[in-house]
Amino acid sequence: MASLGGQQENEEDEFISSLPKERGWSFSHVYLFEQFWCPSSLIRERNIFQKHFHAKQSDVLVASFPKSGTTWLKALTFAIVNHKKFSSTENHPLLTSNPHQLVPPLYTFRGNIHDQILQLSNMAEPRVFGTHIPFPSLPKSVIELNCRIIYICRNPFDTFVSAWAFFNKIKVESLSTLTKEEAFEMFCNGVIEFGPWWSHMLGYWKESVARPNTVLFLKYEDLKEDVDFHVKKVADFLGCSFTQEEESDGVVESIAKLCSFEGMKDLEVNKSGTINFEIKRFENKLFFRKAEIGDWVNHFSPSMVEKLSKIIEEKLSGSGLSFKMHS
Ligand SMILES: Nc1ncnc2c1ncn2[C@@H]1O[C@H](COP(=O)(O)OS(=O)(=O)O)[C@@H](OP(=O)(O)O)[C@H]1O
């Protein structure tokens, strides 16, 4: 972890310990920082980032609440921005690397901060980063330079099931396994890494309405319905539209196929590869579970359905944001 130096570190520790604190889903604790629940390590990383990271105008951000389709959108975005560089069928980096390796998270400082900044500044442009950070807490330079942001969200029912399955598998050893009931209670209270999920979605939703050329808001369910349409939409948004010839050659369809759940989950790198997450090293295969719309029906009791539906109604009403719950 990058170091701030003695006194500053102490002040930061004091600041973090003054914040409201809850048990996390995968981290021992999460703190209410800038109105979202966040592990202490991320608060530190984010503070360093605010100070030292300078966005470039060509940077692209893939933003999401966890378990909403991040892996899929990272793969698609990487393939789209590099479609002139790599063929989707031969030797494509996505055939041998997990999307999270090709599209690194904005905040994961390990080791020397200056090396990290140098590494990032040497990345091929356009640099594509992933982030689960809510809109208001993004690095200032990202906002000031109007870097393009693609946000993906998913219906909260499926997001909950996916998160419950995933976080229990990657959690720190010392944490007890969250029962479905415990996790659901926390989810309904917004207490989950990067939550509350409703303010996360609404933050990006409002920006996408106010600045549609800067923030593109996508839904997992819509991508499932017509991925080719969305591949073209993302390319147009990023200013790298496909030519007529590329479209006739089937480039759009081959990107969609390369990034499909079926295509990705059976790749060797995603079956047996591992990724170094802050908490521990875990298997890439954990990013690929069922990828269905409506799996929640196998997990929700009628009272859970009623409670979550009410929260969605209450939190999102009037925003214009709604979800498809079944395929
Ligand atoms: N290529 C592709 N296409 C469609 N769906 C996919 C794909 N890759 C992963 N998935 C499904 O997405 C869910 C994981 O969400 P995230 O990728 O956002 O997870 S993470 O936040 O990056 O950890 C998780 O959903 P569930 O299966 O419902 O748990 C994955 O199975």
Descriptive notes:
This protein has 327 residues and is α/β, with parallel strands linked by helices. The chain has one domain (6-316): P-loop containing nucleotide triphosphate hydrolases (Rossmann fold, 3-Layer(aba) Sandwich), CATH 3.40.50.300. The protein is built from 16 helices and 9 strands. It has helices at 6-17, 40-52, 70-81, 99-102, 113-121, 140-144, 156-170, 180-188, 197-210, 220-225, 227-237, 244-248, 251-258, 261-265, 268-272, 302-316; strands at 21-23, 29-33, 36-38, 60-64, 128-131, 148-153, 215-219, 274-276, 281-283. Strands 5-4-6-7 form a 4-stranded parallel sheet, with helices on both faces. A 3-stranded antiparallel sheet has the order 1-2-3. The protein has a two-stranded antiparallel ribbon with strand order 8-9. Helix 11 crosses helix 13. 3'-phosphate-adenosine-5'-phosphate sulfate is lined by residues 64, 66-72, 158, 162, 165-166, 259-261, 264, 287-291, 295. Its EC number is 2.8.2.-. Belongs to the sulfotransferase 1 family. Pfam families: Sulfotransfer_1.
Shape: globular
How do the strands line up in the largest sheet?
5-4-6-7
Give the C-level CATH assignment: Alpha Beta
What structural category do the secondary elements indicate?
alpha/beta
Record field, number of beta strands: 9
Roughly what percent helix?
40-55%
Low-pLDDT ranges = none
Largest sheet: 4 strands, parallel
Q: What proportion of the residues form beta strands (DSSP E)?
A: 5-15%
The assigned CATH architecture is 3-Layer(aba) Sandwich
Small-molecule binders here are: 3'-phosphate-adenosine-5'-phosphate sulfate
Instruction: Quote the CATH topology.
Output: Rossmann fold
CATH superfamily: P-loop containing nucleotide triphosphate hydrolases
Radius of gyration: 19 Å
Mean pLDDT: 93
Ends apart, CA distance between termini: 43 Å
Helix segment count?
A: 16
GO molecular function: sulfotransferase activity
Protein name: Sulfotransferase
EC number: 2.8.2.-
Organism: Phaseolus vulgaris (Kidney bean)
